[in-house]
Design brief:
By secondary structure, this protein is mainly alpha-helical. It contains 8 helices and 3 strands. A 3-stranded mixed sheet has the order 1-2-3, covered by helices on one side. It is elongated, with a radius of gyration of 26 Å. The relative contact order is 0.14.
Length: 319
């Protein structure tokens, strides 16, 4: 799953930082309430019904709860205005939070795997699960799936990869509940070993998602460029600006869910410096209005004229 693959039009009008922060806060607090209830219910029921799978699922819900508070923390800090120490703003708090969430999922998943493996090494110690565990899993599955759909809708509306990731965290929990439910059914049918096997599968799912999520966030922190479709949309906007004859060297890098862009604009070589500057300003304003671009740095080149930026390197004189 590519957590940054938002289905929205790349040229859609951007949402303000305040709108994004409000959406993140509102949806995340809903998730907090759901995960508190599920964590208490699943772990308690897992202990009473002797289901390792249900306990593992409850721990997964607990990791969701911790993740929710990380999202709230990042959302609060990412909306701060630019300052002297952070001239481009604080949007990368979202990327950092995404990396923390990925590491959290990976650690939780590895812990689940280890616990399940220890249980499988002593199959005689696996006890029969009480049927009440199955009812708890069913309620948890429905709650998590509904939570996922709600959070993903909000995330796509405001184009927040951090919220998309948190939504898929909820979906992974729903998938894990399904696996746990199948394990409990197998246990009740006379195959007790299926309950710890379900816990093992859940641990693998959580660890895999944590790895993919953390790796994706790490690339964003290393100035990964925007996707090709969005870069091409920005280039078209620049080309449509009156006075721009061509565009080259368009470079992008992610800044939270925003983008920082550098571009070279080719204009008529015979116009004044002031006219070239005005064209560059118009091009910048168009891009900022139409795209999720935090800042655009433009460089003006003469159209169909040689320029020092692209001149062949001069060979050093012979010794």
């Amino acid at each position: 799953m590519n957590f940054n693959a938002l289905a929205d039009d790349p040229e859609d009008t951007q949402h303000s930082l305040a709108e994004r922060a409000a959406a993140a806060s509102r949806s995340t607090w809903v998730s907090v309430v759901v995960n508190i209830v599920l964590t208490i219910a699943q772990i308690s029921a897992g202990i009473l019904s002797k289901s390792q799978g249900l306990i593992a699922d409850g721990i997964h819900s607990l990791s969701d709860l911790v993740a929710d508070f990380v999202v709230l923390f990042a959302s609060h800090h990412s909306k701060k205005d630019a300052d002297e120490g952070h001239p481009y703003g604080h949007q990368r708090f979202e990327n950092a939070a995404s990396l923390v969430l990925g590491v959290l999922l990976l650690v939780v998943g590895v812990g689940m795997l280890w616990s399940a493996v220890l249980k499988l090494q002593s199959p005689d110690s696996v006890e029969k699960v009480h049927i009440a565990a199955l009812w708890v899993v069913g309620v948890a599955l429905v709650a998590k799936e509904l939570l996922f759909r709600y959070m993903l809708t909000v995330a796509k509306r405001v184009k927040s990869s951090m919220l998309v990731a948190n939504a898929w965290h909820a979906r992974s929990d729903a998938a894990s509940s399904l696996v746990v439910g199948l394990g409990i059914i197998g246990n009740l049918a006379g195959y007790p070993i299926l309950d710890p096997i379900a816990a093992l599968i859940v641990g693998f799912m959580v660890a895999k998602m944590g790895w993919e999520f953390g790796w994706d966030a790490l690339h964003d922190l290393m100035d990964r460029s925007a996707n090709d479709e969005e870069v091409e949309a920005i280039r078209r906007t620049l080309m449509d600006t009156p006075g721009v004859s061509d565009v080259h060297d368009v470079r992008t890098r992610k800044m939270g869910d925003m983008i920082v862009v550098d571009a070279h604009l080719e204009v008529d070589a015979n116009i004044t410096v002031e006219a070239g500057h005005d064209i560059a300003v118009e091009a910048r304003q168009r891009v900022l209005q139409r795209h999720r671009v935090l800042n655009l740095m433009t460089h003006v080149d003469p159209w169909h004229r040689p320029d020092l930026d692209h001149a062949a390197p001069v060979a050093p004189p012979p010794a």
